[in-house]
Amino acid sequence: MSSPDTVAAAAKFDPERAAEYERQSRIALAGYEACHELAACMLAASLGSGRACRILVVGIGGTAQEVVAAAELEPDWRFVGVDPSPPMLALAQARLEERGLAARVDLNLGTVEELAGHELFDAATLVGVLHHLPGDDAKRAILRAIASRLAPGAPLILAGNHYAYADKPLLLKAWGERWRMFGADAAEVEAKRGKILQGADPPPSEEAVFALLDAAGFTDPQRFFASLFWGAWIARKR
């Protein structure tokens, strides 16, 4: 069943926010494409190139960029995507159809816990999701749900914001300057800053990310990308 925290997080991505997600995600995360490209490369390096693998993509809604990058690199990979937000899932469907990838992806509205079947996946991704879930219990729950669907030793790509935003004033100011670089005026920058300060709950440090992974059954986390508050790691199912 869906947890109340997952439902609440999904509700933030209403049709209006979903419609602006693609542009905004590329501004808020400097290096958006590079992060996804490197994630695909890390998975290929971990799994071995040329294998037929099934990849679980949690929070696929929006750009489906995890699939776009990985599918181009590994033509024998197939994907199962899950997202609890109907508007965001519709965006992913449109993007996959646009790229000619829809036949390689099974899209599911809902959560990992609601995913049908019991076959274990070769790998999973959780990108841009964890900091939207309030509190450590919800974060551990989604990571444990993913771990339960992975074969032993399978890699997980985890990416999202970490650090408490207010504790990193210089990074927060630079984040605002990036929005200004892309045309936002002072009032818009302030509104966006207020939204992330009120509406997200990132792990407060990389050590906290590692602790969440360990508690959920993952080991050997390694960071491969960083951009202001954002980090990306690969870990393995214990």
Summarize the structure.
The chain is α/β, with parallel strands linked by helices and 238 residues long. Helices cover 47% and strands 19% of the residues.
Q: Any key phrases for this structure?
A:
seven-stranded mixed sheet; 2 domains; globular; alpha/beta; about 240 residues; S-adenosyl-L-methionine; Rossmann fold; SAM-dependent_MTases_sf
Task: Report what the structure shows.
This protein has 238 residues and is α/β, with parallel strands linked by helices. The chain folds into 2 domains: 4-163 and 202-237, Vaccinia Virus protein VP39 (Rossmann fold, 3-Layer(aba) Sandwich), CATH 3.40.50; 165-201, no CATH class. Helix content is 47%, strand content 19%. It contains 9 helices and 7 strands. The protein has helices at residues 4-11, 15-28, 32-47, 65-73, 86-98, 135-147, 169-181, 186-199, 206-216; strands spanning 54-58, 78-83, 105-109, 123-127, 155-161, 218-227, 230-237. It has a 7-stranded mixed sheet, with helices on both faces. α7 (169-181) packs across α8 (186-199). The chain is globular and about 50 Å long. The protein starts with a helix and ends with a strand. The mean pLDDT is 93. This is tRNA (Cmo5U34)-methyltransferase. One of its GO terms (molecular function) is methyltransferase activity. One of its GO terms (biological process) is methylation. Pfam families: Methyltransf_12. Keywords: Methyltransferase, S-adenosyl-L-methionine, Transferase.
